[in-house]
Amino acid sequence: MSLSTTPSSREQQRLDWARDATGNPALGLERASVDAGFRSYWRTTGITPSLIVMDSPPGKDNVQPWLRIRTLLLEGGVRVPDVLAQDVEQGFLLLEDLGVDTYLHRIDADNADAMFDAAFAQLLRVQAIPVPEGFPEYDEPSLLRELRLFDEWFLGTHLGVQLSAEETERLFEVYRLLIERALAQPQVFVHRDFMPRNLMPCGDGTAVIDFQDAVRGPVAYDAICLFKDAFLSWPEERVAGWLAKYHSLAVEAGIPVPALAHFRDDADLIGIHRHLKVIGIFARLNHRDGKPRYVADAPRFLAYLDAVLPRHPELQALADVLDTHVRPALLAQTAAA
Questions:
Q1: 2 in a domain, yes or no?
Q2: Which domain CATH number covers 115?
Q3: pTM of the predicted structure, to 2 decimals
Q4: For 37-56, what is each residue's pLDDT tens digit?
Q5: Are 158 and 306 within one domain?
Q6: Which of 89, 96, 143, 229 lies at a CB distance of 3.0 to 4.6 Å from 82, suitable for a disulfide?
Q7: Which of these three, 96, 129, 155, is where a domain ends?
Q8: Does residue 3 fall inside a structural domain?
Q9: Directed axis angle between helix 140-149 and helix 165-184, to 10°?
Q10: The pLDDT of residue 3
Q11: What is the rounded CA–CA span in Å between residue 330 and residue 30?
């Protein structure tokens, strides 16, 4: 039986819109990148220079937050993609093509210092943007909702772990501490996924993409995102050096960071929050959305937790859950595979 090559209605709608927006009836589209969500990106073929079509299907994704936050970033001096045409109702944007390589493709042990220096320059601009009234906040409900992804989706659904009442209460005490420390940090404009995959070498500097989930939140959040990534890991001593470099630049730029020792603790704790959230999201992508490839990176985030938790005895309950339940369950899954 042969597979049909007839385009879906959305594929045809996207192609027709791109041809109309560019005025080129012979234009083609090819996949530019794969995203964990519903949004997709397509590179034009048949024209020079190539352009990018962002497809945000109505009812599944909304392009307006992306446009609104892009304006704020642009006004703050952040390099973001140019918008050449837009159709909010259909969920299409025509963007400049910044190239095929992100930081993730180019960064290595030798060039990381220079590339992160360029990333710092953009991050400081992001953090200096005044947060508008009514902007989404990393408040207590949203922070807790993200932490619960870990116990609901990763522990429960993915590993089949059921904690005792005492273990649950101790884990929730960890959650409460992480939330309290996050809310106590100076609050700034937070990209929320400021990582190498969302940074692009661009001319003499760096362009920032995938900023649609920005919030007002903890000042250490984006800095730790940059170094504790889903796709590559760095030695802890290099991470410590980069955090110190960022902190020094932030002080110079007037970003409201606390003293370095306090900032390191803040970065540790908001990093633990993010690691737990990401592990839970990976499990949810696997079991709810049928996207299994992400959960294979869960061990990287467990390694991040292992590197930090010994510095924070107040979080021993989380370390106990990892030792008592997570590692044995992962070993059992590996043995059964």
A1: no
A2: 3.90.1200.10
A3: 0.92
A4: 688 999 999 999 999 999 99
A5: yes
A6: 96
A7: 96
A8: no
A9: 140
A10: 46
A11: 37
